[in-house]
Specification:
GO cellular component, one term: cytosol
Number of helices: 5
CATH topology of the largest domain: Alpha-Beta Plaits
GO molecular function, one term: sequence-specific DNA binding
Distance between the termini: 20 Å
Number of strands: 4
CATH superfamily of the largest domain: Lrp/AsnC effector binding domain/regulation of amino acid metabolism (RAM) domain
Keywords: DNA-binding, Transcription, Transcription regulation
Order of helices and strands: HHHEHEEHE
CATH class of the largest domain: Alpha Beta
Protein name: AsnC family transcriptional regulator
CATH architecture of the largest domain: 2-Layer Sandwich
Strand order of the largest sheet: 2-3-1-4
Organism: Stenotrophomonas humi
Largest sheet: 4 strands, antiparallel
Number of domains: 2
Strand content: 15-25%
Length: about 160
């Protein structure tokens, strides 16, 4: 995806949308000192250009019964395209995995996993992840406490 040129007003608008996603167009316009029609045109342009990828609600995991969070590093036994594709396709089917990143270094993938409890994690690990063809090694770390969580992209780095 090509980089899009963003001016200061675009950046202020994006910051507001990241923090206040349910704000009305009129509220957004007031916060960034634009008329409602100009604000709407900018938001529509940012959506069309793919800068705004979508909208959604942030859920509290514990409130919906997901009390255990883990990061799982995975090493594949083979690194051919077929083995990689097989693993990537399997990950797409696992609801427990909320993010999967390909890595550099000694492990190939980092999975961010949410489960109910240790029994659920054990079932996920034994019945899904380790059962997936091509997984050579797994290393898990459980989250004890979240110190800082992703809430918004760092827009202050734009234009540097």
């Amino acid at each position: 995806m090509a980089s899009v040129t963003l001016d200061r007003t675009d950046l202020r608008l994006l910051a507001e949308i990241q923090q206040h996603g349910r704000a009305t167009n009129a509220e957004l316009a007031a916060r960034v000192n634009l008329s409602p029609s100009a604000c709407l045109r900018r938001v529509q342009r940012l959506e069309a250009e793919g800068v705004i990828a979508g909208y959604g609600a942030r859920l509290e995991p514990r409130a919906i019964g997901l009390g255990l969070q883990a990061f799982v590093r995975v090493q594949l036994s083979k690194h051919g395209q077929a083995a990689i594709n097989h693993f990537v396709e399997a990950v797409q089917l696992w609801d427990e995995v909320v993010a999967c990143h390909a890595l550099t270094g000694d492990m190939d993938y980092l999975l961010h996993v949410y489960v109910r409890d240790l029994d659920h994690f054990s079932a996920f690990l034994l019945d899904k992840l380790l059962d997936a063809a091509g997984v050579a090694d797994v290393n898990s770390s459980f989250v004890l406490r979240t110190v800082k969580e992703f809430r918004a992209l760092p827009l202050s780095q734009q234009g540097r």
